[in-house]
Amino acid sequence: MRSLLCCETEYEEHFRRILWRFAEDGISYAEIRLAMNYGFAIQSGDGNNENNHAGMVQLLADILNGEHPKIQASGLAFYGVKFIYACLRSIPKERMKWCMNTCIELKQKFPDLICGFDLQGQDIPELLHMRARIDELGLDLPFIFHAGETQDHGSDTDTNLFDGILLGTKHIGHGFSIIKHPLLMKLCNEWNIAVETCPISNEVLGLCPTTKAHHPILLSNCVPCSDPGSWGASVLSHDFYQALMRSNNLSIPGLGVIAEWSIEHSCMNFDMQEKVYKDFEEKWFVFCQWIIDAYGQQWPAEPEIHVDIKVPADIDKCQGNLYF
């Protein structure tokens, strides 16, 4: 599959279909992790040239600019996508530094498209230098790390939760083992760090047997999906359904709150967040009204309860007793 998708024509068509699937599933905005490992390139259609990382982003930008108006013209609400530059931490440090520098260069070249940087694996000291460089250039380029993607306690994958939070990550991808660290949960709450928990992905990866055993769902500030195309799932609907079925404590209004959180914790600027939130609120009211119209008549009306409360004349002298 990778060799097929590394061809320019297939790469473009794959991304084009992703955009339409997002919009058709009701997703109005997405932040996509791009696999930007060292040396990864896309072959041109004739096979004679390669598109480097900058060329890959330019290809995607051209497709986005071409498809965005078409999606909106079809009547679907869609505000586009941004990209998270993602690479593996298992590569040698020199190659890692190259990826970091490339990410910064891409942010400068595509400021409205590159929205974050992610490393998949153990955190490394070079991230401190990258953070300093980003601050020096005045770029809005947050870290968005995978961390805690394990059942272990004390392993490298578990302890990189500490590194990610101390490095100021905006989101934590998966964060499955964070339940074992009450202090980190408290810091995520206080510092407004979103936990991106993926119900179906965590089942497929063997982190939990069923969604009912998926405890981080209670902590999450979003419910993004992870690699849904790998098992033929929809882009997000199935994850939301699994979250809804997981517990009686998470109702349809709860899903609405999670959707609102996904807007709040996105990398959109404030004005765009306000616009997207307003659009979501309007559609949410329409959705709730549809539920009432479609299913409300199936349930008997709640009986009205009338309670007569007799207030004694000397109410000021009472010690909290009321008479019914």
UniProtKB/TrEMBL annotation:
Q: Which InterPro entries match?
A: A_deaminase_dom, Ado/ade_deaminase, Metal_Hydrolase
A single BP term in Gene Ontology: adenosine catabolic process
Q: Does the keyword Hydrolase apply?
A: yes
Q: According to the lineage, what is the superkingdom?
A: Eukaryota
Q: Which residues form the Adenosine deaminase domain?
A: 12-277
A Gene Ontology molecular function term for this protein is: metal ion binding
User: Which cofactors must be present for this protein to function?
Assistant: Zn(2+)
Query: Record's Pfam families?
Result: A_deaminase (PF00962)
Sorted alphabetically, the keyword list is: Hydrolase, Metal-binding
| Listed name of the protein | Adenosine deaminase domain-containing protein
Q: Which species does this protein come from?
A: Fusarium oxysporum f. sp. lycopersici (strain 4287 / CBS 123668 / FGSC 9935 / NRRL 34936)
Higher taxonomy: Eukaryota, Fungi, Dikarya, Ascomycota, Pezizomycotina
